[in-house]
Amino acid sequence: MPRLRPRSLRSLASEDRKDPSAPMSRDSQTARIHRTPKSAMQSGRAHTGAWTLQFEPAEPKRIDPLTGWSGSGDTRAQVRLAFPTAEAAIAYAKAKGWAYEVENPPAARAEIKPKSYADNFRFGRTDNWTH
């Protein structure tokens, strides 16, 4: 009898399968296409225009009993492909026969008005000058 994982640790997709302990097939994995987010380490927006294709995890991560590290046998979770446009990523997924979901980016915020340090000392300034 196969050993079942606790319900909270099973992946959501495993509930649809007949044998929850069997790994998902590679054909049933869904590719996620999304715009590359801005890095939290920098304030700039470089390298944010590209679109990324990633696969959803096929199985939950498990803790290795010897080392205590978490990992899984899912090698597709390591794949991250970059494309210049969403259409190119969709065309690639269709050519490979993969199911995909496209996440549209949120609406862009208003542009930041450029400021100058010299504006603090300009003639005719209406705001109070404080330190």
The overall strand count is: 6
Question: What's the helix-strand series?
Answer: EEEEEHE
Question: What is the gyration radius calculated from CA atoms?
Answer: 24 Å
> CATH first level of the domain at 28-35 and 49-56 and 70-105: which class?
Alpha Beta
**Form type:** elongated
Largest sheet features? 4 strands, mixed
Fraction of helical residues: under 10%
Spans with pLDDT under 50 lasting ≥5 residues?
1-24
User: Counting H and I runs of at least 4 residues, what is the number of helices?
Assistant: 1
- Kindly report the average pLDDT value: 77
CATH topology of the domain at 28-35 and 49-56 and 70-105: Double Stranded RNA Binding Domain
Structural write-up:
This protein has one helix at 86-96, and strands at 30-35, 51-55, 62-63, 70-71, 80-83, 99-103. The strands form 2 sheets. It has a 4-stranded mixed sheet with strand order 5-2-1-6, covered by helices on one side. Strands 3-4 form a two-stranded antiparallel sheet. The protein is elongated. It has a domain at 28-35 and 49-56 and 70-105: 2-Layer Sandwich (Double Stranded RNA Binding Domain), CATH 3.30.160.190. The protein is 8% helix and 18% strand. Residues 1-24 have low confidence and may be disordered. A hairpin with a 6-residue loop joins strand 3 (62-63) and strand 4 (70-71). The chain is built from 1 helix and 6 strands, in the order E-E-E-E-E-H-E. The protein is mostly beta strands. The protein starts with 29 loop residues before the first strand and ends in a 28-residue tail after the last strand.
